[in-house]
């Protein structure tokens, strides 16, 4: 039958007609155009196997199993500051009809002017709002434009693991070669709480990655998912290597305002000799707790920013005008009260620290070993002490943390994210015994998490 099917195949323009002999009758069959053309239209090789990202997979998981609490994706489940959401409502329905039309492609004027006002004192240099700042479709597009705007065929890019998963994809789609180095947890001392500062780079291993093909280093501080806030000394080591090997630094600082005392966020662009080789990335979504607004930015020296502009003008052209106007007004509002503790840039971390401490406490009480983050809004927690309480054999995934998070979501009703999604294939073992919890959630949802953790543990005893 199979042979006769193939033998009778004829291709007519965009469909195939099959003549098949069944009970001495000739039968016509149409094959769909896509079946015939599928080979031609398969995903280009530079995109790899086109696997689902962890976000796509876990959003589906949440839709299917409806866990009682979602501590997976990094976004608040409560309102942004009033003035921020009101700004958008006022812009969209206000008197100026042009706020609902296209605006300047490289960034709405009022927004880039306010970004320059915010960052100039922080980087110790008067920023040119026109040539040194680009507004993007979330920090995501700032990364895209920075990577696609600089990485050439065969260029090597150093990525610190765990890493925000799109870095690798973007580098490869530009023809670049990612070179990975994991942050490694120092061996834990009995009874001592582990913090994100205990996750460090091996300096010799780091230096060995830099060479003549190295084009770029991607830094993320404060770090997702570890919560590490790179120290002045750690940043100096990275800066010295970048300068020695003439390497560009992309500094992803979307969690810049979520740093817990006594730690301080240091912008690598402010280190001597680094401004000219650094592109710094920020996010209005993270800064104002409006991740759905998908508005971000990149800033750096004009000659480097030009390369981002070229990608942006041809892929995106311009970002959403009313949201840019609303972010500009929100920045103005916060800049006017910058010296007050009420300024959201500072009150946010104050608000989050008690959530962090509460989550760390309940995780410890329920068999996890959390890594206390110095920044960001995630906690990585070692779950291996719970391994004897959970049957992972029913989950088919290759990595243990995927099996744990899926089974745990189904049994305990708590959705978390498997950190091996943030590692290259060779280094997944470093993250397999952890899971990532997000704590920018309503207090009542963190309390519900405690209840669910206790109930799950009680069932297992
Ligand atoms: C480290 C890091 N970089 C970039 C982004 C993307 O930010 P945005 O939502 O502004 O595109 C995220 C979002 O979670 C992130 O965690």
From TrEMBL:
Domain Aminotransferase class I/classII large as annotated: residue spans: 68-450
Cofactor: pyridoxal 5'-phosphate
Source organism per UniProt: Bicyclus anynana
Entry GO MF terms: transaminase activity
Enzyme class: transferase
InterPro entries (UniProt xref): Aminotransferase_I/II_large, Kynurenine-oxoglutarate_AT, PyrdxlP-dep_Trfase, PyrdxlP-dep_Trfase_major, PyrdxlP-dep_Trfase_small
SUPFAM superfamilies associated with the record: PLP-dependent transferases
Keyword flag Cell membrane: no
Pathway assignment: Amino-acid degradation; L-kynurenine degradation; kynurenate from L-kynurenine: step 1/2
Organism superkingdom: Eukaryota
Protein name per UniProt: kynurenine--oxoglutarate transaminase
Keywords: Aminotransferase, Pyridoxal phosphate, Transferase
This enzyme's EC code(s): 2.6.1.7
Gene3D superfamilies: Aspartate Aminotransferase, domain 1, Type I PLP-dependent aspartate aminotransferase-like (Major domain)
